[in-house]
Amino acid sequence: MKDAPLTGYLLHARAYQERRAIYQFFSREHGVVHGVGVRGMPSFALIELFASGQSSLKNFNQIHLKSSQNIALKNTFGQNQYALLYLNEITTKLISQENPCPALWQSYHNSIQSLQKTNELAVIKHILRHFETALFDELGVSIDWGADSMGRVIDPRACYEFIPNQGFVSMAHGRLLGKTMLAIAQHDGIDDVYLNDVGQIYRTLIDFLLDYRPLNSRKLWAEQLKYR
């Protein structure tokens, strides 16, 4: 990669030497790129930079904000800041390095812009579920709400349990009603009525993809909710 222009967002940073940092940068052009650059790259702001180098750790230079209207983390408030941190954490941990994923990047970009404008919990949940759907699509693990693990059409009278790496399995005491699953499958988006059901299933799959490693953003969010 030689002086490749990248547009994207900072996912993670750690100090390196006195005035430099090692960055994980989610770019529209090449996916997640690791690089070294001067300290001070802001979180949740759309950035343009140039990357060069043949190793897995690039050199970042000519770093600048694409728009003066970007909102940095210090200007977020309440629950949305934990949602923003969550997006960065799952993207960092689940997307491989230098794997172009333009559809997922666009979903991330839209999610960042939307989260910076709201602190309403229901709206935040919708934004996160939309991004997680795009993430599952990118990873090839999309959830089919209309079929069970054997490919059979969901029985509206049955109960189901979601098992990662298998799908929905009919169980006498399953947590999800078949009629609920079919209703979810028939909607292009996620209806408010089913938001919690979808959230539980998505969390199960996210945990599995992470090999059940804990997420710091979840811990922070849970602590914040505890003291509200």
Number of helices: 6
Beta strand count? 8
Q: Structural class from helices and strands?
A: alpha+beta
Strand order of the largest sheet: 1-2-3-5-4
In percent, how much strand structure appears in the residues? 15-25%
User: Helices and strands, in N-to-C order?
Assistant: EEEEEHHHEEEHHH
How many whole angstroms does the radius of gyration measure? 19 Å
Notes on the structure:
This protein is α+β, with helices and mostly antiparallel strands and 228 residues long. The protein is built from 6 helices and 8 strands, in the order βββββαααβββααα. 37% of the residues lie in helices and 24% in strands. A hairpin with a 3-residue loop joins strand 2 (20-27) and strand 3. Helix 1 (79-94) packs parallel to helix 3 (121-139), helix 1 runs antiparallel to helix 6 (216-226) and helix 2 (102-115) runs antiparallel to helix 3 (121-139). It is elongated and about 60 Å long.
Task: Give a quick precis of the structure.
The protein has helices at residues 79-94, 102-115, 121-139, 178-186, 195-209, 216-226, and strands at residues 4-16, 20-27, 31-38, 47-52, 57-65, 159-163, 167-170, 176-177.
